[in-house]
Amino acid sequence: MANLVIDIGNTFTKIALFEGDKSLKFEKFASVTIPALKEFISGVKIDRALISTVKKSRGEWELVLASELPLIYFNSSLAGTIKNHYQTPQTLGPDRLASVTGAHQLYPGTSNLVINAGSCITYDWVDAEGNYYGGSISPGLNMRFKALNHYTSALPLIAAEEMGREEGDDTVSAMRSGVQNGIKHELEGFIEVYRKKDPNTNVVLSGGDGNFFDTLLKNSIFAPYIKNEPYLVLKGLNAALQHHND
């Protein structure tokens, strides 16, 4: 029997099948269709499904899925391994809660700073006992590039690239330096704050830009406590579903 877990984000929908802690299959969709979903789960006996979504409306494929197997939506009451001290739990993004749930499951007995690099960059810290008090939200990589273009009359819309030097020597490279080095220093600052709080804190990177951030960090502070977990939210959802089944 397998668990089906689905993470509906602002840009992509990520879907995975798990048997226990073992990942069987993963796929990312810009847009989910009923035929694509049925093909993804074909040949697998599914026990139940869990969806985490940042969207308020339900897609047609979600209704079809709910008619065919037990389907529940992730919320704070399902994160049983986490003691959630957020003042407004109803406004906490499910992806953030699933991320700290996943980090606590993967690296038990230690504190974890989860940096989720998606449309926004979120910083969430969970201590060794599973206490979660909150975190921080800042603009993501692409959002910063889009803002430079949108709010000025002369700056072009550009994409991230690896840089050979710190400073830019033309407009485009100066924009990359400002955005990418700005994020790097932001990451380093948050890491320093939380590792002063607990020197044993792991730094767990996730999200669509997680690999890029991993490169940014390891160019300056390569360390074994930096973990790259691209499927962290999905692993957190699977951990929550397993705990819910117990």
Question: What features would you highlight for this structure?
Answer:
26% strand, globular, Type III pantothenate kinase, alpha/beta, potassium, 38% helix, Nucleotidyltransferase, domain 5, ATPase_NBD, 246 residues, six-stranded mixed sheet, five-stranded mixed sheet, ATP-binding
Poorly predicted runs are none
Helix-residue proportion: 25-40%
Number of helices: 7
> What is the N-to-C order of secondary-structure elements (H for helix, E for strand)?
EEEHEHEEHEEEHHEHEH
**Total beta strand runs:** 11
Summary of the model, kept short:
This protein has 246 residues and is of the alpha/beta class. It contains seven helices and eleven strands. The two termini are 14 Å apart.
Topology:
Layout (H helix, E strand, L loop, with lengths): L1 E7 L4 E7 L2 E8 L4 H8 L4 E8 L6 H9 L2 E3 L9 E2 L9 H13 L5 E6 L2 E7 L4 E9 L1 H10 L20 H27 L4 E5 L3 H12 L4 E3 L3 H14 L1
Parallel strand pairs: 1-4, 4-5, 6-9, 7-10, 10-11
Antiparallel strand pairs: 1-2, 2-3, 7-8, 8-9
Helix pairs in contact: 3-7, 4-5, 5-6
Structural overview:
- The chain has helices spanning 34-41, 60-68, 94-106, 141-150, 171-197, 210-221, 232-245; strands at 2-8, 13-19, 22-29, 46-53, 71-73, 83-84, 112-117, 120-126, 131-139, 202-206, 226-228.
- It starts with a strand and ends with a helix.
- It is 38% helix and 26% strand.
- The relative contact order is 0.17.
- It has 246 residues and is α/β, with parallel strands linked by helices.
- The strands form 2 sheets. The protein has a 6-stranded mixed β-sheet, sandwiched between helices.
- Helix 3 crosses helix 7, helix 4 (141-150) packs across helix 5 and helix 5 packs across helix 6 (210-221).
- Homodimer.
- This is Type III pantothenate kinase.
- ATP binds at residues 7-14, 119.
